[in-house]
Amino acid sequence: MSFKFQVVGSKLKITSIMRLTFCIFAFLLFCFSFAVAQIDLPLRIELESARDQQAYKYVSLENQGVAVFYKSAELNADTAQWVFIHYDTNLVKTNQYKLRLHNSFQYFAEEFSNNKLYLFFQKPARNKKDTLKNYLLEWNLKTLDFQLFDLQKYREPTFSSVHVKDDYLFFIVDEKKSKSICYYNVKTDVKQTFQIVDEEVTSIESFCLDTLSKTTNFCMFIKNKQGTRSELFVTDYSGNLKERVVFPYYEDFIYNSAKIACVGRDSLLLIGGYSNNKEKKSKGSFSGIYTIPFSKNKFYNKNSYPFGSLLANDTTLNMKHLTEANLLTNLHITQNNGKVFAISEFCYPEYQYSVSSYRSYGYSGYDPPTQAFTGFRFLNAFISEFDKEGSLLHEWYFPIQNVLTKSFNNLVGVYQDKEENSLFFYVNFNEIVSQFVNKNRLLSPQTAIPVELTNKADVLEYSVNVYMQHWYDKNFLVSGYQFIKNAHRGKGKRYVFFLNKLICE
What we know:
Layout: E1 5-6, E2 13-15, H1 22-31, E3 35-37, E4 44-48, E5 57-60, E6 66-74, E7 79-87, E8 93-102, E9 106-113, E10 116-123, E11 133-140, E12 145-150, E13 161-165, E14 168-174, E15 179-185, E16 190-194, E17 200-210, E18 215-224, E19 227-236, E20 241-246, E21 253-255, E22 259-264, E23 267-276, E24 288-295, E25 298-299, E26 303-306, H2 308-311, H3 319-323, E27 328-336, E28 339-354, E29 361-362, E30 365-366, E31 370-386, E32 392-405, E33 413-416, E34 421-428, E35 431-438, E36 441-450, E37 459-472, E38 475-485, E39 493-504
Antiparallel strand pairs: 1-39, 2-3, 4-39, 5-6, 6-7, 7-8, 9-10, 10-11, 11-12, 13-14, 14-15, 15-16, 17-18, 18-19, 19-20, 21-23, 22-23, 23-24, 24-25, 24-26, 27-28, 28-31, 29-30, 31-32, 33-34, 34-35, 35-36, 37-38, 38-39
């Protein structure tokens, strides 16, 4: 079994650079790592945009294709035209729709469920007499109908995310002074809010839907005069509380985060970062990862996996980094092939210091050097694979090179096929960095390949917000904005939003 990245239509493959005989090629393929070569042009779509604008949005529709939408024109003071385009799995346009929406509509979130794409919009208040309004646009991919719902009873000004299932919307509000979950039925117009009022909720850690039992599951970190604790809540789709269970207590053990994976009907696996009381860890820095199974209203035995032995093999994390208080851990999880993967990304805030070209003397002496935040410097990712009971199956170290970003978002992605071949990947500027493994066996070293352009004569000047995500089966989407020059084309220059399709096989 071998892995290769292939762009359908372009046939971008991991293959040998030298064209030798089949026997020599097979021998080299077996003995040595793959190199990258472009054979044809990529399968890709481009939508041109005004310079440095980022107005296009897209949503994966899984094996039904992809939807792209954007505000195309302002028709008058109250009305704007929005364009919605459907592409099939080969990125061929199948339908395009033009809808008239309010000019002040601001797109916020989306969700795809049961062959319906839900797009959430907000209409901000124009003046003191006006009020914030929220709307949900439903796009039925089977009937090709659009329906706009005015969410009259929902007036929350800010929220963190939106989830949709059946006719229910779940709004998660995780702001500093307002932490709650709103349950809203768009057909019956019934709203219910779940909120802890007698204690301080420091954070809503995670939220997931159990579609088999039709429940919502989320964790809250709660603080009062007696101290802090972590709790798991289970409700039905309407927001009625079914279970509320406190995390088990362990001496010298502090829960730093909690992610939820639904691993079966009424069965959950909690994964998060922890710290030991004896270790001086700053906020956002972990000692390791824990897993706790939850089933039938009961927590089972905790497993803990410290980072210490893993970091010892990391050449980028020297002792200076390990002792610094500003070392951060970004933990996120993903489910694939019946497994749960925890991705721990290590980074630290980086600053740039500058000294004035001339030194002036003031009341407090000479002007000190100025400090400007330049971004988070990512160092590596540690990837852990767990079974449904939370037992560690495999663990890998995945180095991250030259990544500096001001957004503290999830960077590394994981995909595993049925043969347990695993792909680790991230995007840095215009390069896709990937590595293939099978359990503890390395299939290929870490490799960086460029995001392919439409024409061979295209020259990339720069790219912005390039992102890669798993689409469906072995297919992936790479998206972003690029400024491209081409001396052989009429315009010569173009700034585009693009989508590339890739296959991992």
